Structures are given as structure tokens and as C-alpha cells.
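#structure-requests
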Amino acid sequence: CTCVLLVYLIPMIYEVIVIGAGVEGSATGYYLTSRGTKNVLMLEQFDALHTRGSSHGGSRITRKAYDQPYFVKMMEEAFRLWSEIEQQSGKKLYHKTGILVFGDNCVKRFINSIKLNNIPHKIMTGSEANREYNQQLQLPDDYLCIFEEYGGILRATIAVAAMQELFVRNGGQLLDCHKVTGLIPGPVVTIETNKGSFRAKKVIVTVGAWTNKLLETTGLTLPLKIKRTEALYWSTSNPEAFSSSKFPTFIHKKLVGDSVEEFYGLPIHEYPGLLKAGYHSAPEISDPDERDASSCDSATSEIVTEFIQKHFKGVTKKPSIVEICMYTETPDKGPFLDRHPFCHNVIIGAGFSGHGFKLAPIVGKILSEIALGHPPSYDLSPFKIDRFMKPKASL
């Protein structure tokens, strides 16, 4: 007789699955595996280094100073962790240029934060900054200006690639072109994708502009706005003066009505001869998959053009390159770093409001600590999901 042995394949249960391999997800996967967590899977709906979300491109601004004291503390460690990633990957990710913040009296909060936290700096008036950067700037004389020494540039796509490579080197598994279509909660979460299902004890969601599309499958919708923004690159008549060895990254802050208008920019570093600038008040879109169908950014280009022409010398009247990016914004501009309110083994990192790239190593650490049940390294109350939930009326 013939004996037939039937083998039933039991689907693998991962310790942690990270959904989304942008900068936050890649930092989370890197942190988990670098600290010894085994059986970690990372899923990405597009190619691993795609240009559809918030993490692509050649450059992002980094700095230590923030108006919010908790971000200052986090950035101090973020600089150390970025250095760790550089050392382990052998890739240069941070280029120190300093950062110049200038504008009206709303810059005072930034100055107070820098002083309070003993961050090396130099305070100037607009006229003094014009003398310091006489080939580049033409600021109003009464502007407040502060130069922070540790500001600089992070090489965006190269940084994401470095963390993904370290994640895989440390034993993690990265599957791109796997679009997650749903989450089935339970003691073990089932993740449904276009290429099959996966199971995990803990799931970390870092999908940027797609956050609510995914979380809606669990009955949760967060107060997030999807912003479609432009990064514009400008030719100059004096590229040497605007090089990253001569000119800092910069932020402009000015009170307009009840809100602060903010522009940002980087010296020539990413593209030969091109200065980068943008406007931190982008138009909202409803669907991240329709990013390129929108034509709503023409006004943004005009606003940035006016800013550039007013404050900088020798910059062309039209940008040479325009690149599209998205970010998600919360009502208070602070992220969500928290457990799902009714699926406690699902952890959410979302709503970084245009500030997330520089913070990514700390975000990865925090999300890992939540997932693994470790004591948090920081006070997470500013990042709780329930801060926007209305309290129930007492009877």
C-alpha cells in the first residue's frame, strides 16, 4: 500500500509587520531589527524607493531648534541616531550648513527656544543679516534673524535606502509592490494585500497620505488633511554664493492674520546651480492616488516666486524645476504616535505635518517601544489620538 503524508502549511506569524516603507516605516524597521527584534516584515504598496509619497528627493532640512520644547529634546537624540545610521551604512546623510530663521516678531518664540535649550546661535537684525550674506539676501532691515549652527541637509532618498538596507541586513524582510487592502483585528492581526495575506502579533502603520484609506477598514478615521505641495528649484546669477558651503538652509516666518506664513529653502546642493524653496501652506487634496490629477498648485508657485524675488538677490523669475510631494497634517500640526483606540496591537504613526523626515529615527524608536511594550523614552501625551476626541458629557 502507499502511505500518503499530508502536510498542512501553517501561515507564519510575524512578530511585527510595518506597513509603509517611507522614511518613518524604514526608520521603524531599522530600529526594531537593530535592537534585536526577529521576524519583522515591511510591506510597501509601491516600489521600495518610489516618488509617490513624502520621503523621496535629494534633500530635507534638519535642525535642533523648534518652538515646541518636546521636539527640541527629540531632535537632540535624532541627531545622534542619524549619526549611528551613517556609521552603520557607510553613507553620508547629513550635511551641516547651519540654518537661518528670519521674519517678524513671531521669530521670537524660535529665539526663546534656542536660548532656553542652549543651542549655539547668533541673533541678527535684517540689516545685519544682509551684511553677513551681502551677495544673497535683501531682507527688510527690521526683520528678526537667528542663525542655528546645527541646521543642515539630510539626503532624503539616500537616507531611506540606507535604513532599508540596514533593516534587511539585520534580518528584516522587505516586500514592495504589496498594497495593503485591509486589516482584520484580533490577537493576531491579519493583513490583506493584493498578493495574499500576512499575520502578525503587532502591526505598525506608517503609510502617510494613505493613513485614513487603510484605517477606515478598521472603522477609524483620523483628523488628517492631505497636502499636495511643490518644491521649486531656482537658477541664480551667482551659484557659488548660494552653494551649501557658503549659504545656510533657511526658514521665513511672518504673521499673516491669525496664522504664521512660513517659507523654507535650501542652498545649492541637490541639483547643480539650483536653489530650492517652498511654501509650507499647501492646498488640500482628498485622494492621494489622485495627486497628479490636481492642478491646484499654480498659486503656490506664484506665492513662492514673490517671496524669492523680494528676499533674495540674483534669482530667476521662474523656477527651473518643480517637484510634487505630499504630507499629512493634523489640526495642531503634531503627529499621532499611539495605539489604535480599539485595536491595541495596531500602532499608528501619522500626521507629521511636514516635519517628519528629520524626526524619523526618533519616530522609529517610539513606535518600536509602543509595539514591544517597552517604557516610552518620551512623554507621548502630545501625540495621543484622543487629544482630538470630545469628552463624553457626564450624567
